[in-house]
Amino acid sequence: GIRNLSDLKKVAVIGHGNGGTVYKVHHMKNHSFYALKVLRFNENGIGIRQPSMILEAEILKRVDSPFIVKCHAVFDNGNCTETDNGDDLSFVMEYMEGGSLHDVLRENYRLPEEAISLLAKRVLEGLNYLHGMHIVHRDIKPSNLLVNDKGELKIADFGVSHIVEGRIDATELNAGTCAYMSPERVDPERWGGENVDEFAGDVWSMGVVMLECFLGYFPLIGPGQKPDWATLMCAICFVEKLEMPEKASTEFQNFVRRCVEKDWRKRATVKELLHHPFVNRKCSCISKGLENNECNFELDFGRRRKYFFLHLART
Ligand code: ATP
Ligand code: MG
């Protein structure tokens, strides 16, 4: 196990999110790499820390699934030498070398349906696990879907987003944070208030991400646009039906439609979607390495990242 934050040496900054920074760190005793997410709670950070947060962080450590990025340890305040701030929460996570789906999508690359099908299956398996533990992810989006060295895709940052959420005034949320939110999360009053089934929100977000994988751009707003908060809110709340790409198979179109059903009561559940023909397709792989029920995709993306390598075990 990881006992001390001081055993971890920061190697590089991987990226910044809302109120946090993610570092690549090296554990000096067991000689392996981890990702360290540090949430900063002070006047410059994400507001006041609540006592419940450490409890929620404890739940994180109990989550153990091949479809979820593992959280190995949580440090309160952190005996970390580099921070003199007493208000940090640090999460030691499994390091995902391959980066996120966001890295692929921001270059406007599109994924073939075969890849999306396997990807959707993994996300659904992950959500099925979390929902089974009565955990709502609340922040399914491309930057929270990570790929490791083996090419396995996993869900990251559930719970962390929960901890962060509610500490920020809604109007301060940047567009990136709410782009994948479901209509009932954006406007709960209209959709049943307290009675809203929060699990349905994760399904919506996943549907939007899968459509984005197909199109290569954020589907609620046309390509090439950088949406502001108000535009996004309107798109989510007022668009009656999302237009499906003509080139997509009917299976895929139907799958996405079942996810982005505006009324959460009519939306498909994770369990239903696991049986959907789109995610249970016979895979005709576009790349080498087809073995048993495993499937490798090597998508050549040119310039920035030579390969986005997805190894998606069919379950
Ligand atoms: P948000 O704060 O809303 O979650 P975000 O996901 O972009 O937004 P972070 O979660 O802080 O922000 O992540 C910052 C960057 O670090 C992202 O590019 C993300 O893909 C990457 N990252 C996060 N966790 C890991 C990990 N375990 N391994 C490798 N990279 C990671
Ligand atoms: Mg994240």
Write the layout of secondary structure elements.
Blueprint: E1 8-16, E2 20-27, E3 32-40, H1 52-62, E4 71-76, E5 88-94, E6 99-100, H2 101-105, H3 113-132, E7 145-147, E8 153-155, H4 160-164, H5 175-178, H6 183-186, H7 199-215, H8 229-238, H9 250-259, H10 270-274, E9 296-300, E10 307-311
Antiparallel strand pairs: 1-2, 2-3, 3-5, 4-5, 6-7, 7-8, 9-10
Magnesium ion is lined by residues 17, 143-144, 156-157.
Brief characterization of the structure:
The chain is built from 10 helices and 10 strands.
Tell me about the largest β-sheet: 5 strands, antiparallel
Distance between the termini: 29 Å
Question: How are the strands of the largest sheet arranged?
Answer: 1-2-3-5-4
Low-pLDDT sequence parts = 79-85, 166-173, 286-293, 301-306
Task: Please provide the count of β strands.
Answer: 10
The ordered string of helix (H) and strand (E) elements is: EEEHEEEHHEEHHHHHHHEE
Q: Percent helix among the residues? A: 25-40%
SS-based class: alpha+beta
What shape does the CA trace take?
A: globular
Beta-strand percentage? 15-25%
Question: Please, could you describe this protein's structure?
Answer:
One of its GO terms (molecular function) is protein serine/threonine kinase activity. It comes from Lupinus luteus. InterPro entries: Kinase-like_dom_sf (IPR011009), Prot_kinase_dom (IPR000719), Protein_kinase_ATP_BS (IPR017441), Ser/Thr_kinase_AS (IPR008271), Ser_Thr_kinase (IPR053235). This protein is an alpha+beta fold and 315 residues long. Helices cover 29% and strands 18% of the residues. The chain contains 10 helices and 10 strands. The chain has helices at 52-62, 101-105, 113-132, 160-164, 175-178, 183-186, 199-215, 229-238, 250-259, 270-274, and strands at residues 8-16, 20-27, 32-40, 71-76, 88-94, 99-100, 145-147, 153-155, 296-300, 307-311. The strands form 3 sheets. Strands 1-2-3-5-4 form a 5-stranded antiparallel β-sheet, covered by helices on one side. A 3-stranded antiparallel β-sheet has the order 6-7-8. A two-stranded antiparallel sheet has the order 9-10. The longest helix has 20 residues, at 113-132. The protein is globular and about 55 Å long. The two termini are 29 Å apart.
